[in-house]
Amino acid sequence: MDKEAKTAAPVMPVQIKIPDAVTPPPPPDMDPEEVMASDSLSVEDAAGLRKAVFSNEARLKKMSAILEKLENDKNLEKDIELRVKYGAALWILRRPAEALKALDGCRTSITGAYIAGRCLVELDRYTEASELLEKTLNRKPNSPQIALALVTAMEKAGEAEKCLPILKSLAASSGVNDEVLFHQGFCSEYLGFYTEAYNYYEKALKANPSNEGALFKLAYRADLYDDEETSLALYMRCLDANPPNISTLMNLGILLEDQGQYEKAADCYQKVLNTYPNHPRANAFLADAVASLDMNVDEEKEKKEDKLAQVLRIPVTDFELSVRSRNCLKKMMIQTLGDLISKTEVELLSYKNFGETSLAEIKAILESKGLTLGMDKDKIETKSKRMEARRLLDTGGEDVMNKPIGDLGLSIRSRKCMDLLNVRTIGDLLGRTEADLLACKNFGLTSLQDVRQKLMQFGLELSKE
Q1: Which residues 6+ apart lie within 8 Å of 445 measured at CB?
Q2: pLDDT tens, 68-102?
Q3: Residue 260 Ramachandran class (φ > 0 left, ψ -120 to 50 alpha, else beta)
Q4: Which of 43, 48, 57, 388 is the 20 to 30 A CA-CA neighbour of 130?
Q5: 182-196, 199-213, 260-274, 446-460: lowest mean pLDDT where?
């Protein structure tokens, strides 16, 4: 990879294009009864059925009937091939935890090991998945399905750089398709080669305009750069998948809520629950979206402040800077525009090797986003508030620390951030900084002010470290 690609100006903000509307490629034309009746289930058939079943109501009913029949088969415990089919049926019907349990002891079967690996990925057990799928690929090295499953597991485990040889081998043996191109883009983006990554995503969309991975990555980046119109259009294109990716539906729901389209947002969360009835975030977000239908909120003000919060989360590495400026910012632990505006000109110039030229570069970047250095230096709390917090802690404040976060009466959006951060008590919240909260998607300055005001009722404040 060309090292200069990593320092190039970001492609996304101005060059992202919405692919032309096309008819999505048809799902595999597979009859579940015919496939599951074979003597042994192949990796290819299992992967194909996973795509085919949810695209057709009749197939879905057949698959559910097959699962019920397998559950009642008297030979299930002693017949490994039968158990592999049973585990496959559970996995195909989006029940990974049950499928993994059913496949216990069936990993001598390549198909059983493959499905178990896919289940581990879906259960966020990425390291286990990588180890199992790597062993399975060694047993069947020419399987594109196993190779792509391993690549996905490695990417999610934070080992994207290890995927490049696998993708190269896969492209040589099976040809370059949209899935290979998407994963090449993902690895490039992970390594910081943004221009190269987006070129791969474009190629993936040319090969298949409905490639959900590429659409999702571009939609997320467009949202980060405050291009809601493009982001929304790209997320909508992701819905061609059957069923749509959970992350797609959740992000689209949040984006629709931002625009005040609570009914459509609720529909997105409901689609998640149609596949995963016990999904905790979808249940919570659905309740919030329904509640918001009856709320009167100053949407315009909140939207503007949320846009500012999104801008503050943009990494400084997304901009074209000189080597000296980049090195200085890295050593000062400045990673985002939010970190940058917390500094003053004097603070930057006092740093070794940071001169007027670097300062001019920084100011130009901030000016393009409507920002200036030192913007948040006015966040100073009064002495009386600090004394009140100390008084509270000295007189039994531990009880307050253990109060559930719901006792603060936070807004819907603030509560969503608490859920994402796993903040359950007021004490948990006090361990978070303003930066932690603003890093949550859709948590803006209005929400931050809401949290501050509610904490002030107890004489408390967010962590400064």
Answers
A1: 305, 306, 308, 309, 438
A2: 999 999 999 889 999 999 999 999 998 999 999 99
A3: left
A4: 48
A5: 446-460
pLDDT for 328 beyond 80: yes
Amino acid symbol at 258:
D
- Residue ranges of the domains in the chain? 21-153, 296-378, 383-456
What span, in angstroms and rounded, lies between the C-alpha atoms of 285 and 199? 34
CA dist 106 to 59, 100, 259, Å?
26, 10, 48
What's the rounded Cα separation, in Å, for the pair 67 and 53?
13
Alpha helices in 259-298 (DSSP H): 262-275, 280-292
Alpha-carbon distance of 343 to 331, in angstroms, equals 14
pLDDT at residue 304 above 50? yes
CATH of 383-456, one of 3.90.700.10, 1.25.40.10, 1.10.150.120, 1.10.150.20: 1.10.150.20
Measured distance CA(429)–CA(275) in Å, rounded: 32
What's the rounded Cα separation, in Å, for the pair 30 and 51? Answer: 10
**Which has the closest alpha carbon to 135: 165, 161, 114, 163?**
114
Domains 296-378 and 383-456 share a fold: yes
CB of 116 within 8 A of CB of 135? Answer: no
Q: How far apart are CA 141 and CA 150, in angstroms?
A: 12
Cβ atoms of residues 316 and 329 within 8 Å: yes
* Cβ atoms of residues 94 and 275 within 8 Å: yes
SS3 assignment, position 336: strand
Q: What are the contacts of 66-72 at 24+ separation with CB within 8 A?
A: 66/32, 66/33, 66/36, 67/93
CA atoms 402, 403, 405, 411: torsion sign: negative
User: So what's the architecture of 296-378 in CATH?
Assistant: Orthogonal Bundle (1.10)
pLDDT confidence of residue 6: 33
